């Protein structure tokens, strides 16, 4: 058993017995001295995610935040209507405000740009298949990226959209430059945030996009240091469109055309481990969207999915064993988060605002201009 798997298993075992006591202490009951188990769990968390703190006061502060996040995870577990499991994640030592500043982007003030809101006529009339997962087609979905401390989910989602559509249309796998989208962005704010349409406008303004190999991701952005002209272009887009805010239309377009970008409320993702999130508008407001990701598929959970009775901890509840429709989404927080970098949201209830801003590029290679000459 690898060290990573062993640590994750220990964390799960120790956390199971902690959350109820922590929740009680945070509600005003006298906690007394902090339990040894909590400190052990926090130590394992630090080892698992390579965390260290500059001085004892900061360590104590992060331990307190960690305890509060465990209690919050328990609450989410009790409220969720799907099969999602919440608990220790790479973000368990961050406050909600810190998490939002580092990994989301500012919420849209007003409306998205007035682009044509339509679904391609070529897919009207086609039925929606029961399942769709573009990850199963080799070379379509690029590897999981990690935005680290750069607030660039918008650029990574747009890059993933272009890569997938390019592979589907031209049978050519590639990874495009996220760094170019950051350095050459005129509308967004680089690592301080932006929107997927900012990325698409950048590609149009630069007449294409370089490869990640030639123009690699560095996790920062340098205003007025755009190096787009120094690198060969490997992908181009014709324009971009916003789909109708309807889950059935989104599913049909996804199945017939390819992955699209969506922007959701990421509030529940800080504590998310795995499973299908089914939230209510109260627990995950669909209007307050602040995180862009790539929608790569959909399906239904098998009736046997969910926590089995013998695996239910003292702080979780068994989910009903019935089929739950879901979306599959590719995140940009590394493969150690969620379901190997992916997560699932309930499909059919606009969970966390998935229908608010469904955008996708439309691709086309540049047309070569023919030389015109006077006949002799």
Count of helical regions: 9
The CA-CA distance between the termini, in Å, is 78 Å
CATH architecture of the largest domain: Alpha-Beta Complex
By CATH, the superfamily of the largest domain comes out as: Cysteine proteinases
Structural class: alpha+beta
CATH topology of the largest domain: Cathepsin B, Chain A
Q: Ranges with pLDDT <50 over ≥5 residues?
A: 28-33, 304-315
Q: What profile does the largest beta sheet have?
A: 6 strands, mixed
Q: Bin the strand percentage.
A: 5-15%
Question: What would you report as the Rg, rounded to the nearest angstrom?
Answer: 22 Å
Provide key terms for this protein:
single chain; 376 residues; alpha+beta; Cathepsin B, Chain A; 2 domains; cysteine-type peptidase activity
What does this structure look like?
- By secondary structure, the chain is an alpha+beta fold.
- It has 9 helices and 12 strands.
- The protein has 2 domains: 3-79, no CATH class; 100-363, Cathepsin B, Chain A.
- The strands form 4 sheets. Strands 2, 6, 8, 9, 10 and 11 form a 6-stranded mixed β-sheet that branches.
- Helix 1 runs antiparallel to helix 3, helix 2 (19-26) packs across helix 4 and helix 6 packs across helix 8.
- The longest helix has 24 residues, at 56-79.
- The protein is globular and about 70 Å long.
- The protein starts with a helix and ends in a 13-residue tail after the last strand.
- Mean pLDDT is 84; it is low at 28-33 and 304-315.
- Belongs to the peptidase C1 family.
- One of its GO terms (molecular function) is cysteine-type peptidase activity.
- Residues 1-19 form the signal peptide.
- It is found in: Endoplasmic reticulum.
